[in-house]
Amino acid sequence: MSNADRKITVHAKKDPTKPNGIAFSMKDEDGTVGDELVFDKKQEMKKSEHHKVTFKLVREQGVSLRFPSDKKRAMWVRKDGATTLAACPTAQDQHPDITAQQVSANELIVHNKNPEAAKYKFALNFVKPTDKDESDLITYDPVYVNRNGGTAAVSSMLVLALLGAGAVALFATMTLCSRPDQPDAQSN
Predict the structure, then answer these.
(1) CA pair distance 13, 22, nearest whole angstrom
(2) Beta strands in the chain (DSSP E)
(3) Distance from C-alpha of 88 to C-alpha of 170, rounded to nearest angstrom
(4) Is 69 part of a structural domain of the chain?
(5) 150-155 long-range CB contacts below 8 Å, 24 or more apart?
(6) Per-residue confidence (pLDDT) for residue 125, from 0 to 100
(7) Nearby residues of 138 by Cβ (< 8 Å), 6 or more positions away
(8) Are 149 and 40 a contacting pair, CB within 8 Å?
(9) Mean pLDDT in consecutive groups of 10 residues from the start of the chain, 188 residues
(10) Which of 61, 108, 158, 174 could form a Cys-Cys staple with 55, CB 3.0–4.6 A?
(11) How many CB atoms neighbour CB 132 within 10 A?
């Protein structure tokens, strides 16, 4: 396995409170559980290299699902804008930065180019084995966070908050320093 490879297990279990009665979660090979995948290109990776991501479906007892046979239906991707958050992706959403390469019933292989610091919404889609025309998709929609070589994207709201706090502190210091000395009430 090269530095660019990642193996992610997608767990599907019965949960009557969830849409389609199924709850999903992801677990990275390092044991991290969550709905967000973070990608950093390490110093050993060249900018031209991609992350190979393998999603392995793990079905708990009583869950009968598989990936659809068409790789473009197995994963949809939408990139967040510079100042706006993307909506959840739909059937028409494919993005050249993150592309499905091959799919089987229990495994989806994806290439993530990670060319820049950005967030992507993505949907992993599944079907029941009895759905012959694969028309009834069951969707799980986690998030990709690309850091492109360790450069983390900083939220514009965070930058504005820090600038505002600095301005308030500077104003308070200037106000205190520019006040004339108050005469001491006991010196009269």
Answers:
(1) 6
(2) 5-14, 22-28, 33-34, 36-39, 51-59, 75-79, 98-103, 107-112, 118-126, 138-140, 143-146
(3) 42
(4) yes
(5) 150/40, 150/41, 150/42, 151/117, 152/117, 153/117, 153/118, 153/119
(6) 95
(7) 19, 20, 22, 65, 125, 126, 127, 128
(8) yes
(9) 77 92 91 85 78 95 95 92 78 90 97 87 93 92 68 36 42 44 49
(10) 108
(11) 8
Contact 143, 35 (CB under 8 A): yes
Handedness of CA 177, 161, 156, 84 (dihedral sign): negative
- Nearest Cα neighbor of 143 from 11, 26, 15, 4 is 26
**Distance separating alpha carbons of residues 78 and 188, to the nearest angstrom:** 74
Q: Reduced to 3 states, what is the DSSP secondary structure of residue 30?
A: coil
Structure tokens at 15: 């949960």
Nearest Cα to Cα of residue 136 among 65, 188, 76: 65
The residue segments making up the domain with residue 96 are: 5-152
Q: Is residue 139 in some structural domain?
A: yes
CATH number of the CATH domain containing 69? 2.60.40.420
Structure tokens at 106: 């229990």
Pairing between β-strand 118-126 and β-strand 143-146 as defined by DSSP bridges: antiparallel
Number of domains in the chain: 1
